[in-house]
Amino acid sequence: MDLFVINRYRDTNEDIDWVDRESKNLERLKQRIEERRKAHVDHKQSNFITLKEIKTINEEKKTHENDLKNIDESHEQEGVSENATKSLNINKKQKPLNEFKVLGVNEFEKKIKVQRVLPYWLSHPHIVSTNLQNLSCPVDKQDWLHSTLKSTLLSEGVSHLFPVQEQVIPFILKQHEQPSPLWPHDVCVSAPTGSGKTLSFVLPIIQILINDIGNYIKALIVLPVQELAIQVAKVFKKYCLKTRLKVALLTGSTPLQQEQQQIVRYTESAGWVSEVDIIVCTAGRLVEHIQNTPGFSLKCLKILVIDEADRIMDHIQNDWLYHLERHIKLENELISGKVPSLNWNNVTGHKAPPHKLLFSATLSQDPEKLEQWGLFQPKLFSAAPVDFEDENDIRKYTTPAELTEQFVTCTAENKPLILYHFLVEQKWDKVLCFTNAAQIAHRLTVLLNIWGNGSLKVAELSAALDRSTRENVLKKFTQSEINVLIGTDALARGIDITDCTYVISYDPPRNIKTYIHRVGRTGRAGRKGHAITILLPNQMNIFMDLIKSGGKPELPQIEISPEIFDNLSDSYHHAIKQTKDQIYNENNSKIQKSIELKRGFKSKAQKRKYDGTKNK
Ligand SMILES: Nc1ncnc2c1ncn2[C@@H]1O[C@H](COP(=O)(O)OP(=O)(O)OP(=O)(O)O)[C@@H](O)[C@H]1O
Fold first, then answer.
1. Average pLDDT over the chain, rounded to whole?
2. 403-592: what fold?
3. Å from CA of 357 to ligand 1 middle
4. Angstrom distance (rounded) from CA 352 to CA 344
5. Which of ligand 1's atoms lies nearest the C-alpha of 520?
6. Where is the Helicase C-terminal domain (predicted)?
7. Would you say the CB of residue 194 lies under 6 angstroms from ligand 1?
8. Is 161 near ligand 1, meaning CB less than 6 Å away?
9. Pocket of ligand 1, candidates 140, 231, 524, 528: which has the most ligand atoms within 8 Å of its Cβ, to mutate?
């Protein structure tokens, strides 16, 4: 039975009942509150010393200093030993008693806020002007620019370089002119949308490689999505036309095998050689080639560009950075993640790592995020001056000076009416409209086409469309055959649509970066642009906070008179009925098609089964 006896620990103060204990706790709590209040009052009073008190303190200080001086002099005369003078000096420096912390005493002082300290290269960027109106860098007068590039630029109608190009291109070129053991400084560029960042890396890369005749991949440009890769590859091909440099585009839109045949070749004498000099790719496809293409080598890579670097940083696809760094591994060091220490052994014993160039309109200036790129003594070119007074400055982005931004509020039912009012009644042309879902984009397209009744040409621009259809839609938009493009954020970044005058956010953007990239589809390359965000009343505060977080001033509001809604109400209800019918029919035909497809599979399978049994 002893086995089942449990000896419990009993508190020595078991007699104190719980009510008593609680009241004691309450008492203690009250006492602490009182102490805190007293400490607060004392602290306040100590700040209000009267003038008289300050006078007496100063007088006391003076007499104290005179005493010490006299003692010093007398000791000097008497030839007092050095040690003794030292001890006196220590006494001189001794703090008054009240400066020591007394243990066990509660002090309720507000802690001083720790100031954010940025690394020097982030807090002292090269400031890039955003003024695209008064250009001061004529292409034909730049001695440092290769004559072939000059002639291509002029034939493309580029007579002056934009400020970001004027500053970044010579800097990159200079880095590659340094004598052998010196490694180039890596470069980060954070400049507004449409400010010409693409040419800022295309031109120097071509100029650096123009006389390099080796059969290996020399430059790699990584982009987050196919559309951007296609766009950048087009620019490279255009500017490489008069050179012997070859450019390859590697994205998921072409079969892998086809790309493999295009980029590598096996030779009896030299083994695998590269057929191209510059590769423009998406991160996902790059990993596929690293893993599956025999002879694909980036070991001699000279330049690595990461465009829309913050987007790539946020969504590291297929762990591409890890695979790339493993592939290029320099003896013991990785190209990123760890910066090789700068000593003579490293510099002379190893080949320089690829020169890294990072670009974005919303490049994070967060040192922790930038750390993962393992940049070598980087230099930042930024359009946003660093303001040390403003702690939110670390997230500041700039938009083009030619861009006008506004917002408008309405109820959910009135959103299509406002859009129609802008497009038809105000006759806004060349409009790009963003929604938060592909389904909304489709419905809106159908509605506006029905409602416009021929006066409006609206098309969908979604990532679901195949490449040629999308290019066709964009071409029609440029040629004014389509007035309005409706899409989602999949196409918000980097896409360079010529002559887009208005950007309407039908649904508000989810974060500040999306907002900056959306509105950045207009007001590009020094042209005027307007961006309007439609908000429901309950979305106002969130949107204002979002704008503030980007370090932007408050946006003006467009007022819409209620009569406008009343006038449009009848035609809207008529159009919405027809839209519902059309979407219902579309869905039905989709269901019908999928049923037929399934039936087709089934009957084929049955036929195979029947043939199989017949042959047995
Ligand atoms: N020096 C120049 N003179 C005239 N037009 C230029 C010049 N440089 C670039 N452009 C044009 O400006 C437009 C925007 O350039 P680009 O696409 O490089 O901008 P970006 O800064 O990369 O924008 P985003 O951040 O949106 O990607 C392009 O149509 C390009 O052809």
1. 82
2. Rossmann fold (3.40.50)
3. 17
4. 13
5. 26
6. 418-572
7. yes
8. yes
9. 524
Predicted pLDDT of residue 144: 94
Q: For strand 379-382 and strand 187-190, is the pairing parallel, antiparallel, or unpaired?
A: parallel
How far is the centre of ligand 1, averaged over its atoms, from the C-alpha of 199 (Å)?
A: 7
Residue 285 CA to ligand 1 center (angstroms) comes to 26
**Ligand 1 touching residue 575 (CB < 6 A):** no
- Is 224 touching ligand 1 by the criterion CB < 6 Å? no
Predicted confidence band of residue 85 (pLDDT cuts 50, 70, 90): very low
**In angstroms, rounded to a whole number, what is the distance separating the alpha carbons of residues 228 and 234?**
10
User: Which run of H or E residues covers position 535?
Assistant: strand 529-535
Instruction: Go through the chain and tell me how many residues it has.
Output: 616
Our mutation pick for probing the ligand 1 site, out of 140, 156, 190, 195, counting the most ligand atoms within 8 A of Cβ, is 195
Of 365, 314, 332, 303, which is closest to residue 175 (Cα–Cα)? 303
* DSSP-derived pairing of the beta strands 379-382 and 126-127: parallel
226-247 pLDDT per residue, tens = 889 999 999 999 999 999 999 9
> How far apart, in whole angstroms, are the C-alpha atoms of residue 189 and residue 361?
8
CA of 193 to the centre of ligand 1 (A): 8
Q: Is the CB of 361 under 6 A from ligand 1?
A: yes
Domain ranges across the chain:
2-101, 170-335+350-382, 403-592
Helix (H) or strand (E) holding 381: strand 379-382
pLDDT of 74 reads 54
**CB-ligand 1 contact for 529 (6 Å cutoff):** no
Taking the centre of ligand 1 as the mean of its atom positions, its distance from the CA of residue 432, in whole angstroms, is 18
User: Ligand 1, from 158, 159, 198, 201: best to mutate by most atoms within 8 Å of Cβ?
Assistant: 198
Three-class secondary structure of residue 359 per DSSP: strand
Q: Contacts for 525-528 with beta carbons within 8 Å, 24 or more apart?
A: 525/132, 525/162, 525/194, 525/195, 525/196, 526/132, 526/133, 526/400, 526/402, 527/402, 527/499, 528/402, 528/404, 528/501
Its CATH architecture, for the domain 170-335+350-382, is 3-Layer(aba) Sandwich (3.40)
pLDDT at 461 exceeding the cut of 90? no
Q: Residue 80: its pLDDT value, please?
A: 44
Asked if 552 contacts 513 with a C-beta cutoff of 8 angstroms, the reply is no
Q: What is the pLDDT of residues 278-292, one digit of tens each?
A: 999 999 899 999 999
The letter for the amino acid at 466 is: D
Can you tell me which atom of ligand 1 is nearest the CA of 199? 18
What one-character-per-residue DSSP string does 108-161 give? Answer: --PPPPPPP---HHHHSPEE-----SS---BGGG-TTS-HHHHHHHHHTT--B-
CA-nearest residue, atom 30 of ligand 1? 196
pTM of the model: 0.75
CA 235 to centroid of ligand 1, rounded, Å = 10
Task: State yes or no: ipTM above 0.90.
Answer: yes
Q: What is the structure's pLDDT at 64?
A: 61
185 lines ligand 1 (CB under 6 A): no
pLDDT for residue 241 = 94
Hey, whose CA ends up nearest to atom 16 of ligand 1?
196
CB neighbour class for 91 (10 Å; exposed up to 12, middle 13-18, buried from 19): exposed
| Domains 170-335+350-382 and 403-592 in one fold | yes
